[in-house]
Specification:
Blueprint lengths: L5 E5 L2 H11 L3 E5 L3 E6 L2 E7 L18 E3 L3 H10 L10 E2 L3 E7 L5 E7 L2
Parallel strand pairs: 1-4, 5-8
Antiparallel strand pairs: 2-3, 3-4, 6-7, 7-8
Length: 119
């Protein structure tokens, strides 16, 4: 197998393209009538136009998928995204055995996380 890609189905492809490229900083690769291709590092994110918002669920407890964006400084990245209007799911970052993380929703309600590895 080649390296995996991620497929997202979003509520509004134009709003999502703006969010993922301008807010999160993913690289725009190409567009088609019903989808766009973005890239972060070596990972491709392919986004298709859907018909509604993401299904609501209790993040961290119900089965689902999440893009995990590894950052060097979690607190400064949270502050940066909050300044761009991003609301986080929890008031403060959480921690697990590998590091600290904070979850947020994209414009379609899809949950993603910022993650800072333990050093």
């Amino acid at each position: 197998m080649k390296s995996p890609s991620t497929l997202l189905v979003v509520q509004d492809i134009d709003i999502s393209c703006e969010f993922y490229t301008k807010v999160l900083g993913l690289e725009f690769i190409e567009t088609h009538q019903d989808c766009i291709k973005l890239k972060t590092g070596e990972h491709e994110v392919i986004i298709f136009q859907g018909t509604g918002a993401a299904v609501q669920y209790d993040h961290g407890y119900h089965a689902n998928s999440t893009l995990l964006f590894t950052v060097d400084d979690l607190d400064s990245k949270i502050a940066e995204l909050k300044s761009k209007g991003i609301a986080f799911i929890h008031d403060t970052p959480n921690q697990n055995r590998w590091g600290r993380y904070a979850a947020f929703r994209d414009p379609s309600g899809i949950v993603h996380e910022l993650f800072e590895l333990n050093t």
